[in-house]
Write a structure and sequence with these properties.
- Helices cover 83% and strands 0% of the residues.
- It is elongated, with a radius of gyration of 15 Å.
- The N and C termini lie far apart (51 Å).
Length: 94
Amino acid sequence: IALLFFGPLAMILAQIGMGHIAVIDAVDLSLTIQGLPVKKRIRAIKSRMIPILTAGFIAGILSMILTTTIVGWLFWLPGIYAGCTLWTTNWSKS
């Protein structure tokens, strides 16, 4: 019974977790390319943890939807990185 219940739940949690990791990695890479040192990157990420967690959750849900269409899923990760780059352009100034 547990396998039948937790099997689908594990797939959902895995997709949401993958979305969180993708967003955090994209934000960190974007801030690195912008030239922020490590301590400022960590401070910037920690100060915006709720919006990052929200974006990760939405990215995970979007991943579940786009997995049904393989063509759509091919654009998921590049879209995350492009979106986070646009999102973080003003972070280094604040």
